[in-house]
């Protein structure tokens, strides 16, 4: 699980990279679940929440930069 403080400290490029990694992990977890090989069932929920955190921070920053422009 990623702490929100750690996510907010990252640059937009780091957040995009993190989002890409999380989506790859989510895909792999879905694939493992479909083939019956998934052992860490709770990881699916944690990855989904981490993706939401990253997307929320990116959206907040986009709104903040749009309102400042």
TrEMBL record:
Instruction: Read off the Gene3D superfamilies from this record.
Output: 1.10.287.310
**Looking at the UniProt record for this protein, which Gene Ontology cellular component terms does it annotate, in alphabetical order?**
cytosolic large ribosomal subunit
Report the source organism. Answer: Plastoroseomonas arctica
Q: Which CDD domains match?
A: Ribosomal_L29_HIP
Give the UniProt keywords, A-Z.
Ribonucleoprotein, Ribosomal protein
Q: Which family does it belong to?
A: Belongs to the universal ribosomal protein uL29 family.
Q: Which domain of life is it from?
A: Bacteria
One GO MF term attached to the UniProt entry: structural constituent of ribosome
Q: Does the keyword Ribonucleoprotein apply?
A: yes
GO BP of this protein: translation
| Ribonucleoprotein as UniProt keyword | yes
Q: What is the protein named? A: Large ribosomal subunit protein uL29
